[in-house]
Amino acid sequence: MVKKNAFYAQSGGVTAVINASACGVIETARLHKSVIGKVYAGNNGIIGALQEELIDTSKETAKTIAALRHTPSGAFGSCRYKLRSFEESQAEYERLIEVFKAHNIGYFFYNGGGDSQDTAHKVSQISEKMGYPITCIGIPKTVDNDLPITDNSPGFGSVAKYVAISTREAGLDVSSMCASSTNIFILEVMGRHAGWIAAAGGLAQEQEGDPPHIILFPEIAFNEAKFLMKVKQTVKQHGFCVVVASEGVHYKDGTFLSDSGQRDAFGHAQLGGVAPTLATMINEKWGYKYHWAVSDYLQRAARHIASATDVEQAYAMGKAAVEFALVGKNAVMTTIVRKPGKTYRWEVGEAPLAEVANVERKMPRSYITKDGFGITDACKAYLQPLISGEDYPPYKNGLPQYARLKKVLVKKKLTKSFML
User: Fold this and answer.
1) Model's pTM, two decimal places?
2) Calpha distance 371→380 (Å, rounded)
3) Residue 13 phi, psi dihedral angles, 5° rounding
4) Is residue 308 pLDDT above 60, yes or no?
5) Active site (catalytic) residues
6) Which of 76, 288, 347, 401 is most buried, taking the most CB atoms under 10 A from its CB?
7) What CATH number is associated with residue 75?
8) Tell me: the pLDDT tens digits for 268-277?
9) Do 190 and 336 belong to one domain?
């Protein structure tokens, strides 16, 4: 095999474990220096490739790269930038090939969700169309857990663990105050069209009556009257009510309870604010005192309580991506395959990028209780292993210690710059 360099990039919303995948890619590539030269990381995702801003990871020590495994966020910078079709934006693709040629890049590893796998798929197609061979491997990542084919997505397990823990702890708080103060607590979590993160709140329940008492999913159309009655019944029975609500909760006609009107680069609605909307709704109807919280970035940045299973799987997906490339696989995404049996076991699999790109996997109805406000035992059995185990980062002076990269950029070889 002719020795080629590799390009790795992070895309979309980051997670507590996406850097573990980066660690898996870089450490594995370093074991195969006879085939893979240097690993260049895109400075802010695919934008780094378009602007020829390539981070030379060979300038980072083995210790620093190893520390990526316990470091949250996107160490190399991420982006929300959608590559349009070749016909719509030929210049973008020509630029990518130009940069790859200039830096002898023959491997493309793209770490992201559905839209990102679409980008990886497009790059694999244009490599053939433009006569420059590139091995393209997608690495799954999304806190939303909405990628198809893979059993679960790296990043989700740690968010699920954070939400379950936060729900349990906040539930204890409000239960201790409800006799003379707060009766309602609402936790707003991420999830535009899929309710996996909200469902994870249900893991906080150990026995009947434990919070959360209500979970609101994007898969179940919101019925205001039914919701308010459930709240009243819960407060009457338990003295308080804890609600976990997905940001993507919507009415029967598809209207989100909270839509800012803004759109991101992929055309998705900018959501947020469903918790105060629900709190006001409850207060105006029943007069209950409330508190609410929006977990927002905290849920996906909480590396200090990451799931050990999630960390292990994220690293394995990055490692497998390089191994796939070395044996000639192309235009596929690494996946997690759950083995059958009562004991949780998993292995590495693969899925064609064409079957992953832009496909959202929502929660099956069998995972949601008949009343639409909770999760079933089948859902708990699916979720529980994904939050199992602790993988604490090292601490110093009471704070977790995370990797700090030099992020040395490779000298540009092209004379023309590229405007986004």
Assistant:
1) 0.95
2) 17
3) -65, 135
4) yes
5) 144
6) 76
7) 3.40.50.450
8) 555 669 999 9
9) no
**Chain-centre distance of CA 123, in angstroms?**
22
Q: Is 308 exposed, middle or buried (0-12, 13-18, 19+ CB in 10 A)?
A: middle
383 in a structural domain: yes
Q: Indicate if 34 and 120 belong to the same structural domain.
A: yes
Rounded Cα distance, 363 and 69, in Å: 29
Kindly state whether residue 41 falls inside one of the protein's structural domains.
yes
Residue 103 · residue 55 · CB < 8 Å? no
If DSSP states are collapsed to H, E and C, what string results for 117-164?
HHHHHHHHHHHHHCCCCCEEEEEECCCCCCCCCCCCCCCHHHHHHHHH
- Tell me, yes or no, whether 151 lies in a domain: no
133: tokens are 């061979």
pLDDT at 405 > cutoff 60: yes
> What are residue 175's phi and psi, to 5 degrees?
-65, -30
Residues 230 and 83 both lie in one domain? no
Domain hosting 79: range is: 4-142+305-359+392-400
- Structural domains of the chain, count: 2
CB of 124 closer than 8 Å to CB of 353:
yes
Helix (H, G, I), strand (E, B) or coil at 336: strand
